[in-house]
Amino acid sequence: MTSPALAVSSPVSAPKPAGFKSLMTKYRVPLSILALCLLPWLLPSKALAVNVLINGVVAVGYNLLFGYTGLLSFGHAAFVGTGAYITGIAIGQFGVPWYLAVLMGVLGGGLLAFVMGALSTRTRGIYFSMVTLALAQLVYYVALQTPSWTGGENGLRGFTVNKINLFGFDINFLDPVNKYYVLMVFAALALWLVSRILNSPFGAAIEAIRENERRARTCGYNVERTKLLSFTLSGTICALGGTMSALHLAFVPLDSLHYLSSGMIVMMTLLGGASSFFGPFIGALVFLVMEDVFSLWTSHWQIIVGTIFVLFVLFLPKGIWGTFLTKVMR
Amino acid sequence: MDTELILMQLFSGVALGAILVITALGLSIIFGMLGVVNFAHGALFMVGAYAGLWVASLTGSFWWGLLVAPIMIGMFGMLIEYFLIRPLYGRSIDDPLLLTFGLSYILVEGVRIVFGSDGIPFPTPTLLTGVVDLGVGFFPIYRIFVVGVVFLVVVLLWLGLEKTKFGLIVRAGARDPTMMKVLGVDISKVWLLVFGLGVGLASLGGVLSGPMRSVNPEMGALVLAEAFVVTVIGGLGSLVGSIIAGLLVGVVISMTALFAPEMATIVMFALMAIVLLIRPQGLFGKLA
Question: In chain A, which ranges are continuous DSSP H helix?
Answer without folding.
Answer: 4-9, 20-26, 28-42, 46-63, 77-94, 98-120, 127-145, 147-150, 176-199, 201-211, 213-218, 223-249, 259-272, 279-297, 301-315, 319-323
